[in-house]
Amino acid sequence: MFKTRLLSQEEVKKLVSMKDVIDAAEKTFRGMGDGTVVNPTKVGLDLGETAEFPPYEGFMNAMPAYIGWLDSAGIKWAGGFLGERKKRGLPYITSLILLIDPKIGNFRAVMDGAYITNMRTGAQTAVALKYLHPGKNLKLGLFGAGMQGHTQTMAIAELFHIDEVHVYDISPEASRKYAEDMKDTVQGKIVIAKTPEEAATSADVVVCVTQSKDKYVKDAWIKPGGILFPMGSYQECEDAYILNADRIIVDHVGQCLHRGALKELSEAGKITEKNIYATIGEIVAGKKKGPGPSSERTLCIPIGTGAMDIAVASIALKKAEEKGIGGSYEFA
Ligand SMILES: NC(=O)c1ccc[n+]([C@@H]2O[C@H](COP(=O)([O-])OP(=O)(O)OC[C@H]3O[C@@H](n4cnc5c(N)ncnc54)[C@H](O)[C@@H]3O)[C@@H](O)[C@H]2O)c1
Prior knowledge:
This protein is α/β, with parallel strands linked by helices. The protein has two domains: 136 residues, ornithine cyclodeaminase, domain 1 (2-Layer Sandwich); 181 residues, NAD(P)-binding Rossmann-like Domain (Rossmann fold, 3-Layer(aba) Sandwich). It is built from twelve helices and 16 strands. Strands 1, 2, 3, 4, 5, 6, 7 and 16 form an eight-stranded mixed sheet that branches. An eight-stranded parallel sheet has the order 10-9-8-11-12-15-13-14. Helix 2 crosses helix 12, helix 4 packs across helix 5 and helix 4 packs across helix 12. The longest helix is centred in the middle third of the chain and has 19 residues. The radius of gyration is 19 Å and the shape is globular. The model has no long low-confidence stretch (mean pLDDT 97). The structure holds nicotinamide-adenine-dinucleotide. Nicotinamide-adenine-dinucleotide binds next to helix 4 and helix 5. Nicotinamide-adenine-dinucleotide (NAD) binds next to helix 4 and helix 5.
């Protein structure tokens, strides 16, 4: 009775631009702030990411959400794998998104979620910066020149004039490829940093998108007025920066205390909900103040929410329906 639309990665790519994704991310953050977006904490399945069994060096997360401004609901099933997947030369992130009609629960679409994940991860940072970074120009310190490194740059360049990017990757080849790929996107110059310290100290906004488990960004490297975005799955900065930062801002309190940069200190009882100044949603909705005094250092952690994915996927579906793009299947 109900048809489910099927959309491949190539089709999704044609349907949503970075501008669309940034617009959806901003509206969805506002919805999270005003309570019209429902986003339970994601549920993780450890496939050897940290657990000894099974030994696949990966994880999958189940990420459901309801988006009020679109009256749409769905779930993203997404993960990252470093073992066999990496050996085969496949991208780290793997993902599918399922959308339902929230009134009757029929499945409206099944689509690739990897492209949406990559794009919305960049858009989250760009929207957070729109509300946290004073002015239109910035100098970016980027750790990780992989997939997310690319989309972080694309999204920030949509909203800001990037005067300089100082990129550091443990793979010099990845940095070189990034510099080549991004030369027409970055308005200013791209410098391949020789050391991590050079990348961080040359910038006023530092973004970390690596799979590193080393706390490689040092407290002393982030200047007054600086904003650090540690966005990888593990802790990428020293405990001291987390404990000394003037403000901690996150996208989702529950998720951020259980995964990523805050996990260890939260488990040790050194960081609790009380240490979090605001969510990005509260700032976008105008409930909390955005830019802090120029002397303050900010830690901003968009760990990634299903809400962003479901919002972007719903826009992709709407456009696919208008343009007649994608296949269809009757599951029931
Ligand atoms: N917060 C979010 O919403 C969100 C969303 C998607 C992915 N991520 C995370 O972003 C990270 C990167 O994902 P990706 O898809 O870009 O992977 P990727 O494999 O395409 O790129 C990661 C890059 O980081 C580099 N790297 C690893 N350790 C490093 C270190 N210590 N210093 C500098 N560079 C280092 C690698 O050489 C690689 O080039 C992962 O941890 C992933 O889980 C976060």
